[in-house]
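Hey, weird one. I pasted the Transposase IS116/IS110/IS902 family protein sequence into the form twice and got a warning about non-standard characters only the second time. First submission, copied straight from the form history:
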Amino acid sequence: MGASGRNLLQLLIDETPLTPRMIHQSVYTSLKRKVPQLLEALDGYFSAHHRFMLGQSLEIYDFYQKQIDCLEERMNGYLNLYDRPVEILDSIPGIDLITASVIIAEIGVDMSQFPTAGHLASWAGLCPGNNESAGKKRSTKIRHGNSYLKRCLCQTVFAAKKQKGSPLAERYYQIQSRRGPQKATIALAHQLLKIAYILLKENLTYQEFVLQKRLLETSQ
């Protein structure tokens, strides 16, 4: 909820006369140009009981917002201990600070506990089965794993696929065209986790890794 919305709700709770001047003083940025529309939207039947219930709801909202702020402050304190891993993960297309914190919370920063990137992906439940082996068809459903990590990475795919010119985005749409969006999401989440594993293990940002790879290819 933005500051403008919060102020308008408080006007309703306080039974403040809704004048153009009062609304103009309560909102910010582009909403100041929409005072007539806001005044019209707020004009209606609003009883004392409605004010009471809205006040109760707003108190609950404020309480949980304070709890969230407190937890985020505490989380940021922990993340300060992992500046480099956070920098590395945050450099991967689609991954932001929140996603980086979830990844660190779920898998840690010491990749020696997983022999390979494949082991990590398997542990996380992001390894689709083979379509066919020795003439026998098998299920392609992903295995059970870390539900928090899977959900986080699958949500990250939505951001990664929107980055134009990114190899990850190109990879997503290639798979989507052949196998559909659901399988493309799982495949890219799997790839993002493997990239995170490699970068954390090598102590390289995504950009440093890409540059190093290009230099090696050029020298060959």
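That's the output from the first submission. The warning seems to come from a hidden character in my clipboard, not from the data itself. The first strand starts at residue 132 and ends at 133.
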